[in-house]
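Supplementary Note 3. Input sequence used for the single-chain structure prediction.
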Amino acid sequence: MSLLREAERCIANQGSHATLNALITTLQHLGPWLERVRDADTRRTQGTSKSAVDGRLIAIKDNICTRDLPTTCASNALDKFTSPFNATAVQQLEEAGAIVAGKSNLDEFGMGSHSINSRFGPVRSLRRNRDGESLSAGGSSGGSAVAVATAQCYAALGTDTGGSVRLPAAYTGTVGFKPSYGLISRWGVVAYANSLDTVGIIGKDVSSVREVFGVVNRPDSRDPTSLSSFTRSRIDSHLRSPALAARATSPLKIGVPLEYNISELSPSVLRAWSRSLAYMRRQGHTIHPVSLPTTTLALSAYYVLAPAEASSNLAKYDGVRYGTRSEGPNSATFPSGYLYASTRGVGFGSEVKRRILLGAFSLSADAMDNYFIQAQRVRRLVQHDFDAVFRAHQPIASGQPETNTNPEKDAVDVLICPTAPSSPPRISSLMDHNPRASPLDAYMNDVFTVPASLAGLPAISVPVTVESTIDSRDADLAGIQVIGQYGDDSLVLKVAELLDGRHL
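The predicted structure, written as discrete structure tokens, is reproduced below.
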């Protein structure tokens, strides 16, 4: 298919799927954009394409700054804000010939697991349950995932703080990749939790994800958390060592985390997990149970650390320096009233306010030792658990030996586990008007994605379809997650390609 025809199909799908609410803003004045696609088509014919994504339409999550389209973070606090610059990842894509297809919907400031906490309304998935009810698209990058799933774009950028790329991918049947922390620049990404935020990629398959990753996997001096060229070379050198380079031709050792086999795991997800492992065994790879004991505490630690960083980051949205300023007595009377109390009350939604309050409490003098400091200790233990089971050692940690302290027979190359413990829930069961809806239920969806985020590891969710043992006409779609050692992103993508889209 020509690039022009592909772009026209994407634009047509944006119109026909508008009710899904995946894109907040779309391309305007299509003539200049289509002309850029025609130029890319010409370069493709001549064999002079700028990159693998030259002429492709890429959706951008609306907490990533774009110069030509507004950046709202799906919040009233950033109403009608247009950035004077592109985020580094967006700039890299445009220089590679890609075209911004629009800004995708999300949970406000990336805080949510179902893309329902948006001032533009919830994102709706095409997937329905047996009663025809709309299912969750996952969050917070649900708009990016639905846009890819419905071919409104070729691929999409999202952000993953605790699973916000992988969970939507699992719920929509797409591929969601969170690279190692620091590989993709965060400059121009509106911060939620700086030590966890990672720009991720959603695509229809691993190949398209790999193409986008090849463009944005670059150092950036403007981002202090971006890995330098020297550090990247150090990681590559470690992965080319004889012991690790042999993995390209020899069977892999696949780890199965015992702690992930929880009682809440639904039968369909458990079936997809077990059959995925059986498939890998048939391909000649070996399966090994491993223990990650501290990961059972990871979710609790995450919901201390992430809100704490969020409460600090969002303090700037006071209506004086940043964001919308509300009308009313509190917005102007000083010192008789609080200058920004009304502004923050109106600007932020309920979930954002909940997390700001959680973070402010955990950072308070009386609570810091019991919550924030303890959570940081848990984070270090989670990282240690992962380092103890991988054959490759953590390549940039200070004081690490050149080889893993684990005996060779016990170490594994990657881990394979579910992305989410269950199938996507009904949207109606998640909304505020439902008396049974609880924030804790939504937080539990991140139980399998948060550990890799705390450790900064590369992780990818791929769709796996499992035929029902009861009715051959029925099939369950689940997301299966592949996790690798820090910097081992290429191996994670390689294993994901083996599982991507399998009918097992």
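The two ends are 29 Å apart (CA to CA). The first strand starts at residue 23 and ends at 26.
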